[in-house]
Amino acid sequence: MESTAVERAEESDSEAAAEVGVEINLDKEEKQDSAVPTADGPPSGTSSPSGAGPSEYDRNRALGIRVIAFVIALCVVVTGWAIANVAGSGGASDLVGGKGHKPGNPTPPRLTQQLSTTFTIPGSVPAIPWPSVGQAAIELEGYGSLGTSGNVNTPVPIASVTKTMTAYLILAHHPLAAGEPGPLITVSSAEAAAYAVESKQGQSLVKVYAGERISERDALEALMLASADNIAKILARWDAGSVSGFVADMNAAARKLGMSHTTYTDPSGLDPSTVSTATDQVALGRAAMQSAAFAAIVGEQSASVPVEGTIYNFNRLVGRNGVTGIKTGSTDQAHGCLLFADTVTVGGRSETVIGAVLGQPLGTGDAFLDHTLSVASKLIAAAQGTLAAATIAVPGNQVASLHRAGTASETPLGVIAPVVVIGRPGQSYRVSVSGGASAPVLVVTVLNAAGSGSGSVSGSAVTGSFSVPLVRLLPRGTLSAR
Description:
The protein has helices at 2-20, 26-31, 56-88, 163-173, 189-200, 216-224, 229-240, 243-256, 278-288, 292-298, 370-384; strands at residues 110-113, 118-120, 135-140, 144-149, 156-157, 184-186, 213-215, 275-276, 302-305, 309-312, 323-331, 335-346, 349-360, 388-393, 400-403, 410-414, 419-423, 428-434, 441-446, 453-457, 460-463, 465-469, 471-473, 479-480. It is an alpha+beta fold. Helix 4 (163-173) packs parallel to helix 7.
């Protein structure tokens, strides 16, 4: 009976252990201090009843072995998984800051371009109607020379076009702010007395008297509009102390500007030994028009000066078809001459044309410069036709896209304002995208010589190369900053 009760208790304990897993019977161990396990069997002091099946020790031992085996197998599986993932992502170095991409450091998006990589302004450049005699040269600022005619390496008399250098030097030495009259210049007795003699010689003059005080601006207007030879000498003496000293300064300035075929012998151009070429005068005109005061004066059609009163510009083209200057000239030796400036507006951008014609036939009477002005007008019209505006990209159209790594999705990119280039027909540009995902841009670069084209974005223009920010293109053609 006692044996049967023990067996039932053990069966009950076994069932409870089966329900909850492995049971550690501390109370039983405390009661059986003498039950020390041996190497070959159950603890001493215990016995398994004959025919009663495995003891509690055997059951616990078997369960422990199974748990240990499971843990070992789990470790093997986890280790294998880790090795496989390291190998697939570029090596173990990825896990310790190597070059592989870790979670939180995904492959950056790839920027691709939808536009063609080159763009050419359509159309053809019109032929330029060069004069049949004399010399001519014309250039479009920022684009370079549009060509020349005649022997532009042979110096010829330039008459009153000489006064351009005189005014250029005076303003370089005595700058004027907008509307400023400038310092006063006192006419000497000798300069006033010379008026009568110079008038008999048929020189171009304005009236002066001894002791008269004329402002720098009034003197420059008399010089450049009325082409006053006497004012040229008065300004030269005032600036350099003597006419000869001023002429030396004129030649030094010419060398500095690269006018290698130019020699000045007087400040007015009345002397036929003052010679230059059309290309040299274009270089001077380009430099002189950088002065706001100079450009304002030569762009006047008339002015009022002391003593003489109202004077008029001999260059009757000023104020018509964009003409803004610069200086006429005529003598029997030089014939008809004109250094001119014109503003061409294309695609919302204004460009300046500088040109010169020398040695043109003279007319008679008031028409003595008509042929010269007509030749210049034709050159100006042709120059205006050499520029064209063309659009590379417009808002709403896809320019590029960002591709996310590991996905088929892409983010379309576009521009926020029209991308317009201004240049000569046939001018080509390289079109590319750069900047990556953080700051993508469209880059437009002139393919031929520098200074042969420009571009504009929302009215802002640049020459040579420019970039435009790209933004995310939303549905319905709307744009949003990235």
